[in-house]
Design goal:
Elements (H helix, E strand, L loop, with lengths): L17 H4 L6 H4 L4 H11 L6 E9 L2 E6 L2 E7 L21 E6 L6 E6 L5 E6 L2 E10 L3 E7 L8 H11 L3 E7 L8 H8 L6 E3 L8 H7 L5 E5 L6 H9 L7 H5 L13 E3 L6 E4 L14 H5 L1 H7 L16 H7 L5 H28 L8
Parallel strand pairs: 3-5, 8-9, 8-11, 9-10, 11-13
Antiparallel strand pairs: 1-2, 1-4, 2-3, 4-5, 6-7, 12-13
Bound molecules: guanosine-5'-triphosphate and zinc ion.
Length: about 375
């Protein structure tokens, strides 16, 4: 049986420098998306400090990071001040892949020092798996998110809807990508379509026959960064490799041959798609994708339900079992998949529970301390 693993000739494992080589461009900073707007955001950290330079975090690993500078991708470390130059509260994730930073050269060795971080514009964040009221930023300064789902695995109810909320909540435009369409699994693609509202693009792709990849490429916002999220094995690295036209990031099949037994991508790596600032940002497989708070992401991800809700008899209708509910009526008429309505109720309940916990916590902390947003 075809389990979705690649049985085609396995490319040689990439050298560690392969990804760094992608940044051997005339203007690596511009390729990372540096422009006047970002220069302005970094200005307070660079002002009157001629020894400082702008850079973008391409990768974070244990004990260090890799930074894209005007000279290419270089190893570095972060030594961020407790309070940054900016008012922004960044206690939750001090440094994330995609962050724009001010760097200095460390006098003691060759590495660069990231000494300050610019405020993030848009991001992909999830509930920190170990600190439930805090956000863990998976990718910073991203304009779009590819929500990657492999068609050879059962679609867990609510998974795509949840990813859409996460994307919208971070201010990024979601694009749903279903991988492994070449395996011809009946019904799997339709199940994905049912989870996606009409205003979000959904594309089925195959790295084997190349289907859908041009369409994905055309949907990427130019000059901006697009992050990829999805469970381990979803095909994120394969999409990036296919779009880059070369095997840069290790994919499952390569890792399966690894004598050291490595089997997961631990890096969240930023790669340039061309020299013009369009970038892709891989994230490690995220099985857990909890929400932290809702400042409009839920409504944006359920625009179809929001629209229908205008027709509910009660303005505060919960679309649960109320009389005169236009959302339930749409489900009964076959105009809205009930799974979308149930996902909405579930995600709303999760956010309400977190809001309750946050309020309790703030009450306990009492006055005198400023509550976290
Ligand atoms: N048949 C088929 N297999 C695919 C396709 N895309 C990816 N695969 C296979 O699925 C497996 C996982 O792909 P990866 O690209 O490594 O998945 P990933 O999402 O990057 O996984 P992590 O790095 O663990 O997060 C590999 O064995 C790929 O060869 C596809 O379009 N068709
Ligand atoms: Zn209703």
């Amino acid at each position: 049986m075809d389990d979705g693993r690649d049985d085609a000739p396995v490319p040689a494992p990439p050298e560690p420098d392969d990804v760094a080589d992608l940044w051997d461009l005339d203007d690596p900073l511009a390729a990372a998306g540096y422009d006047e707007a970002i220069a302005a955001r970094l200005a307070p950290a660079l002002a009157d400090r001629p020894e400082r330079r702008p850079a973008r975090v391409a990768r974070i690993e244990y004990g260090g990071c890799h930074l894209v500078t005007a000279d290419g991708r270089r190893p570095g470390v972060a030594r961020l001040p407790r309070a940054s130059t900016y008012d922004d509260d960044r206690a939750e994730t001090p440094l994330a892949v995609g962050d724009w930073v001010a760097v200095e050269r460390d006098s003691s060795d060759d590495r660069l020092l990231a000494v300050d971080v610019a405020p993030r514009e848009r991001r992909v964040g999830r509930r920190d798996p170990s600190r439930e009221l805090l956000e863990q930023v998976l990718a910073a300064n991203v304009a779009a998110v590819l929500v990657v789902h492999p068609l050879d695995r059962p679609l867990r109810p609510g998974r795509i809807e949840r990813s859409l909320v996460v994307a919208h909540e971070g201010g990024a435009q979601p694009i749903v990508v279903a991988t492994k369409i070449d395996l011809d699994l009946p019904g799997a693609w339709q199940a994905v379509r049912d989870a996606v509202p009409p205003d979000v693009p959904a594309v089925a792709v195959s790295k084997r026959d190349g289907r859908g990849l041009d369409e994905v490429l055309a949907l990427l916002p130019r000059g901006e960064t697009t992050a990829l999220i999805g469970e381990s094995g979803a095909g994120k690295s394969s999409i990036i490799n296919a779009l880059l036209g070369q095997n840069v990031l290790q994919t499952g099949s390569v890792r399966a041959r690894d004598a050291k037994g490595r089997h997961t991508t631990t890096a969240r790596e930023l790669v340039p798609l061309d020299g013009t600032g369009t970038c892709l940002l891989d994230t490690p497989g995220t099985r857990e994708l909890g929400m932290v708070r809702d400042t409009g992401g839920l409504a944006a991800a359920f625009s179809d339900i929001e629209e229908l809700a205008a027709g509910c008899r009660f303005a505060d209708c919960r679309h649960d079992r109320e009389a005169g509910c236009a959302v339930i009526a749409a489900v009964e008429a076959g105009a809205l998949p009930d799974q979308r309505r149930r996902s909405f109720l579930e995600l709303r309940a999760e956010i309400e529970e977190l809001d309750g916990k946050r309020e309790d916590r703030e009450r306990r902390l009492g006055e005198g301390r400023r509550p976290r947003r």
